[in-house]
Design brief:
Keywords: Cell membrane, Membrane, Transmembrane, Transmembrane helix, Transport. Pfam families: BPD_transp_1. It is a multi-pass membrane protein. Belongs to the binding-protein-dependent transport system permease family. With about 300 residues, this protein is mostly helical. About 75% of the residues lie in helices and about 0% in strands. It is built from 15 helices and no strands. Helix 5 runs parallel beside helix 8 and helix 9 runs antiparallel to helix 12. It is globular and about 75 Å long. The chain starts with a helix and ends with a helix. About 25% of the residues are buried.
């Protein structure tokens, strides 16, 4: 009897498998994949060139025609890059600044997003639109006022000038989280209110656990932005011991000459944490952004 059931299941499964095999690939799909592959190669080319240049001698970098592969390979560029500058201290500065900014942004942005999404108050929509309008203001416009403010409160040449503005105000993070929170059923809040929960209890016990995918996506975006933040560090920091990794890499470029081989080696090293984060959490990035756009 069991053998007859298995045979019947196999016979029923064969047409389904054959139908999948016989499914034709549309020409438009082939063209689309070719275009996407070509675009991916173009996007990854600068990074591959950076890695290749990090293994070359300075005389090979600007050869015409260009030398695609280093000959000979100079692994010593990485050692020289790490020993020429205090990369260990710069890595620590970038790591702890980024960690504080990410954690603080997730807290403040999620609280603001919850208020805009679920708490009804007068002028909420107008205030949210005004909040989003700040995303359209170029950073260069607010650079001088921000510098003056940091000078007035004594935060120039301090890591607080990199941490506080990014941690307290991130319109993109608030927008992303708000769209996700709006999709949470209102019945969950009503049940919590009946049980005597207040706004903070609802936010902490109900909202936060349900928006973990979106929090992961926002955290990764904030991590990438803070880790690669060169402009703010260049403006606010002066002491070499307080430099972050992007700013320290800039010191390889002198007034009259630049050690491009060591700079490329240092750049490759600085990209490693970003690659690790993306490879490990790419599923959360896609899931968070995709779910956020679904109502």
């Amino acid at each position: 009897m069991a053998n007859n059931v298995v045979t019947t299941l196999e016979k029923n499964a064969i047409p389904v498998i054959e139908a999948k095999v016989k499914k034709k690939v549309k020409p438009s799909q082939i063209i689309l994949h070719i275009i996407l592959t070509f675009g991916a190669i173009i996007m990854i080319f600068p990074f591959l060139w950076t890695v290749s240049s990090s293994l070359k001698d300075i005389s090979q970098i600007f050869l015409v025609p260009p030398a695609w592969l280093p000959n000979p390979i100079k692994w010593s560029n990485y050692i020289d890059s790490l020993t020429a500058m205090p990369f260990g201290l710069a890595y620590w500065n970038s790591f702890y600044i980024t960690a504080v900014v990410v954690l603080s942004t997730l807290l403040t942005a999620s609280m603001a997003a919850y208020a805009f999404a679920k708490i009804e108050f007068k002028g909420a929509n107008f205030l949210f639109i005004l909040f989003l309008a700040t995303m359209m203001i170029p950073k260069q416009v607010t650079m001088i006022p921000l510098y003056i403010i940091m000078g007035k409160i004594g935060w120039l040449d301090s890591h607080l000038s990199l941490i506080v503005p990014g941690a307290l105000f991130n319109a993109f993070a608030v927008f992303l989280l708000r769209q996700f929170i709006m999709g949470i059923p209102k019945e969950l809040e009503e049940a919590a209110i009946i049980d005597g929960a207040g706004y903070f209890r609802i936010y902490w016990s109900i909202i936060l656990p349900l928006i973990r995918p979106s929090l992961a996506a926002v955290g990764i975006f904030v991590f990438l932005g803070s880790w690669n933040n060169f402009l703010d560090a260049l403006i606010f920091l002066n002491t070499p011991e307080k430099f972050t990794v992007p700013l320290l890499l800039n010191t390889f470029k002198g007034l009259y000459v630049a050690d491009w081989a060591l700079m490329m080696a240092g750049t490759t090293i600085s990209v490693i944490p970003v690659l690790i984060i993306y490879i490990v959490a790419q599923k959360q990035i896609i899931e968070g952004v995709t779910i956020t756009g679904i109502k």
